[in-house]
Amino acid sequence: MSVFGLTDAEVIAHVRAVSGDQHDARGVRRLFARAAWSGIAEPGDRMAGVVVGSVGADVALEALLAGWSAERWQAELSHSGVGTVTAAEIGSAVDRWAPRLNSAQVLRSLSHAARFAVRLLTPEDPGWPVPVDELSVHAPLALWVRGRLDDFQVVERSVALVGARAATGYGEHVTMESTVGLVERGFAIVSGAAYGIDGAAHRAALASHGTTIAVLAGGVDRFYPSGHDALLTRIVDSGAVISELPCGQPPTRWRFLQRNRIIAALSRATVVLEAGWRSGSLNTAGHASQLGRPLGAVPGPITSAASAGCHRLVRDYGATLVTGAGDMAELAGDTVTERVTERRSAEQTRVLDALAVRSARPVDDIAARSGLAPADVVAVLGVLHLEERVVEHPGGWVRRS
Amino acid sequence: MSVFGLTDAEVIAHVRAVSGDQHDARGVRRLFARAAWSGIAEPGDRMAGVVVGSVGADVALEALLAGWSAERWQAELSHSGVGTVTAAEIGSAVDRWAPRLNSAQVLRSLSHAARFAVRLLTPEDPGWPVPVDELSVHAPLALWVRGRLDDFQVVERSVALVGARAATGYGEHVTMESTVGLVERGFAIVSGAAYGIDGAAHRAALASHGTTIAVLAGGVDRFYPSGHDALLTRIVDSGAVISELPCGQPPTRWRFLQRNRIIAALSRATVVLEAGWRSGSLNTAGHASQLGRPLGAVPGPITSAASAGCHRLVRDYGATLVTGAGDMAELAGDTVTERVTERRSAEQTRVLDALAVRSARPVDDIAARSGLAPADVVAVLGVLHLEERVVEHPGGWVRRS
């Protein structure tokens, strides 16, 4: 536990403050590494996804601190089946990560998080929102969660409602009506807490006692926009305000765009309720399309500039025209849950096949036998453990007979 | 010229009053037969299309008067490659046509037409709107035209603008703006002269000095709806009010539905501007789709019942969402003209191939050699004649060398 030269006690205290005390030494080290990575790599950094997914967050962080050469990285990554990574790619990635290797900053973000009752959620956590993993190498490395919600499996029945900040009365009205209808149908509402459509969606979800999740582009310790302070505080009281960025990190233009990919990836369907011709919500829509998630757009008067982006989505980008909560629920009744469940079940089968009943096997061995990335193996073992189908021993994992 | 036992003079006088005096005896007989058929068969009568298309309107009328047996019809039709026609089909068709074999009524509709300066247009006429022939056996047998327009080739650059009678201010505003934009781009506007959207389209076309065509569900001697008397009179002054029904025929529910197929078939694209969930304009939209013509729908507020049909067309029936004249023009920039031109050119080639430079050949001979229906041969000869590529002799037609 010599990471960053910190003492075990320092690391354990900081990590437990944001993740509870059910983790063993290795678990704590991994969580600490995830926390560090979430501040080292910018959101959506493909190479960070590759190295963390291949060797694990902890090993990747240690390697970074140890100053592995590009060749060493290439050799290591070539074992894990992530495809070709050039020396230039890994070299430039290490160059952009190195300036952020700052132990004080990691500890500060953790203690900051603890002060705001922010939890650190990682893919190993059973409450992790599995659909975001479909972002693959662009998936968030961790999520910082502020709020009451602690199991993000709710997103398997969710709709992202997004749209213009400069919403019209029509747009806000339709957003509220749609939100109420979706909440009645048991859907969680995901949005970005911006003024206009986002705010209307969150507000209507709260008013109808639904679950709502706000995804921010900066640390969840500081609410943005500040004019939505009261709204975000209310979301914390019943739902969750989340971010892939650690506390203390400000939102940037890039982070807003990357935040949109999380909104899309968290939700079974994304619906744009009002959007100008060049609205940022078209970016969220683009992410939903790239993920193969259903995309809906609400039409409006063609005389309203605030609906031009919605019409564009329908005409040129294959969005489904939706006219209310019924349509939106139908749209979200796609096969995402089935796909995720299927993939999960396939991964579970592969991990179980890679386990023995008598001899304990370490994660790396299971990864090699199953053909899954170590991080995925850890995630699947977590679920199997909860279901009491595997047992952890000092030397690794065994399958219960 | 013993049709109906009328004298030659009677027939010639009546026909010339609605079609000018450039027709020879056979031409007059054919026109008279088309006029008669347009009153004998209800709009869209498939069997009427089959028999007229196969043996020609004049022969078909004579056969009907002569009381051909079903077997005789079958034998005759089997030569002309229209596919199988059962004895029951032809029998029941003859049964529904027989009660309408009324020479007085044909003469009355012709003199009525003459009084209102209505012209009789048939597929042989160079001004015939060729795109309606894509309705094949459901094509109109004749068109009665009241107005200034005498060459319907203008429809090769036209858009049908249709919609609800119960239009909103938004719908009428959008219709007018769109119409003006289309007229500026050189499009003719086709519609049904109904209250609401149709009326707004015609009115805006007139106001912007565009060409507009109103298609009625009854004879053009009596304007419907009567509240649009002044509007229809203005359309007559610059464009055309047309119907496939002869003068004196009232509109019926069936005729309204069939009228919609003419609106769709006349236009390169059909756009629905406002329509309730069960609006009659969805019927026009259905005809456009069946014809493979581009179909557009203008969105509106989802809170407006008058836009529900438009949204339905986009979501469930593959209509393109259009937001203004630019979109509509693009939609109409489809390949209808090209398709029609191609087909025409193919037919011309076949007819020219079937002609000789020295020996004159009658239409039936040309039809047999070219594999085209006699009616089509006559239509193609008409065009070739205008282009001075063929010459008519007493014994038939020759190709100019």
TrEMBL record, chains A, B:
One Pfam family, short name: WHD_DprA
GO biological process: DNA-mediated transformation
Domain of life assignment: Bacteria
Span of domain Smf/DprA SLOG: 120-330
Coiled coil: none
Residue ranges of the TM segments: none
UniProt cross-references to Gene3D superfamilies, sorted A to Z: 3.40.50.450, Winged helix-like DNA-binding domain superfamily/Winged helix DNA-binding domain
Domain DprA winged helix, residue spans: 341-396
Family per similarity comment: Belongs to the DprA/Smf family.
The protein, known as: DNA-protecting protein DprA
Organism: Galbitalea soli
Encoding gene (name): dprA
